[in-house]
Design a protein that fits this description.
GO terms for molecular function: flavin adenine dinucleotide binding; oxidoreductase activity, acting on the CH-CH group of donors. This protein has 400 residues and is α+β, with helices and mostly antiparallel strands. The chain is built from 11 helices and 8 strands. A 4-stranded mixed sheet has the order 1-4-5-8. Strands 2-3-7-6 form a 4-stranded antiparallel sheet, with no helix packed on it. It binds flavin-adenine dinucleotide (FAD).
């Protein structure tokens, strides 16, 4: 820098990333990946780049949406090892910022931002996914505190987490949306059992989680007792932007630029059909990234995306399906059978096999379309005969 001036925020981010982003090996053993991720998150925090717009008093950067956007732009050139923190940073943290008491924010946000405590989201159950308000996990009063019993499923990353945001039923005499409460749960507490579930990629991205008489203190309630639905809607709004808006990672085999490289490597770049599909993919990827940048800026400036998060989520899933079709068109047999020594071949196969989950996780495509139809397009609401009936009289899950 010249004349004793401070470097611009962009220069600081650029220099820091160039000096600090580690090389990541997608084939590295899980414990090693976790260590790398935690070390990197701590460094990110020390540099002031974790939670850039979050309140400085709780360890955030206290800066504006403009700085956050600059960081996103500069980081897009890298493959940051931050996937472990997607739910902490993209969903649970922002919900704590919105709804937590001063004591909860002071206790939980700093270690979350430093990557010392990792969070998960405990909503879905075997009998309650799209209709999550039908959940049956119970939270019953126990003096000042609560006792939790029930089961969650598809809990991403739970096997590596320290805390969870749990949605449980506190009043079965209320209609299903009204008797819910959100809690902060210590995932290491007695009575919590986490069992990893393997999917068709061969990996175990999610889990079953059992709660058997888990005791929680009174201050574990996040938001209001009985206000769990509003808290869930707040978190789901953050989730849709976070999932839909996740930056195409530099080494993501299904990102446009990597599919171009694959087409070049396999001699498919002169095929007019491949070229047309790649061009359409580029346009879709670019349009979504601009839409997401806009949603993020608005959200960071304090204007939540509301139902437009569903547009981002749905478009993100459709983009992945499109990219998967293009990958199949380019790679042909190479997408189904590859040299076992080829890391790139395996990464492509894993990415292709993970695509179907994109239109389920975080709310299915059909549910996003329902939300868009209802709340953006003003179409008539889906009929819901069970809305005003006390939960205990409904036939849902194992009840009734
Ligand atoms: C990779 C992955 C990670 C996940 N991570 C988490 C997590 O961390 N935490 C968590 O709580 N959950 C998580 N989930 C669960 C996810 O939120 C649910 O799977 C999802 O909400 C769908 O619920 P379901 O699987 O019970 O399907 P169902 O709700 O049983 O749906 C079955 C089918 O019916 C359709 N359908 C249902 N209702 C309607 C309707 N009203 N209108 C039109 N169609 C409808 C659905 O679109 C779907 O096609 C994850 C899921 C996946 C795949």
């Amino acid at each position: 820098m010249t004349n004793g001036e401070e470097p611009s925020f962009r220069t600081r981010v650029r220099d820091w990333l160039a000096a600090n982003v580690p090389e990541t090996d997608p084939q590295a053993p899980v414990p090693e990946m976790l260590k790398t991720a935690k070390r990197f998150q701590a460094a990110l925090h020390d540099a002031g780049f974790a939670g850039i717009t979050w309140p400085a008093e709780y360890g955030g950067g206290g800066l504006t949406a403009a700085e956050q956007q600059i960081f996103h732009e500069e980081a897009a050139a890298y493959d940051l090892p931050t996937g472990l923190f997607m739910i902490s940073m993209g969903m649970c943290g922002p919900t704590l910022v919105d709804l937590g008491t001063h004591e909860q924010k002071a206790r939980y946000l700093p270690p979350l931002l430093r990557g010392e405590e990792v969070w998960c989201q405990l909503f879905s159950e075997p009998g309650a996914g799209s209709d999550v308000a039908s959940l049956q996990t119970r939270a019953e009063r126990d003096g000042e505190g609560w006792v939790i019993n029930g089961q969650k499923v598809w809990t991403s990353g739970a096997q590596h987490t320290d805390y969870g945001a749990l949605l449980a039923r506190t009043d079965p005499d209320q209609p299903k949306h009204k008797g819910l409460t959100m809690f902060i749960v210590d995932m290491h507490a007695p009575g919590v059992t986490v069992r990893p579930l393997r999917d068709m990629t061969g990996r175990a991205p999610f889990n079953e989680v059992y709660f058997d008489g888990v005791r929680l203190p009174a201050d574990a309630v996040l938001g209001a007792v009985g206000g769990g639905w509003a808290a869930a809607v707040t978190m789901l709004g953050h989730e849709r932007v976070s999932i839909g808006g996740s930056v195409r990672r530099r080494y993501d085999p299904l990102a446009y630029r990597n599919l171009v490289a694959l087409a070049r490597e396999l001699g498919r770049l002169d095929d007019p059909l491949v070229r047309a599909e790649l061009a359409a993919l580029y346009a879709a990827e670019r349009a979504l990234s601009l839409f997401n940048a806009r949603l993020r800026q608005e959200a960071d400036a304090g204007s939540p995306p509301g139902a437009r998060g569903s547009v981002a989520k749905l478009s993100g899933a459709e983009l992945l399906w499109r990219a998967t079709r293009v990958a199949g068109l380019i790679a042909g047999m190479h997408a189904a059978a590859w040299d076992p020594a080829s890391t790139a071949g395996e990464e492509l196969a894993v990415a292709i096999n993970a695509t179907p989950s994109s239109s389920i996780a975080g709310g299915t495509n059909q549910i996003q379309r329902n939300i868009i139809g209802d709340r953006i397009l003003g179409l008539p609401r889906e009929p819901a005969a069970d809305r005003d009936i006390p939960f205990r009289h409904l036939r849902v899950g194992t009840q009734g």
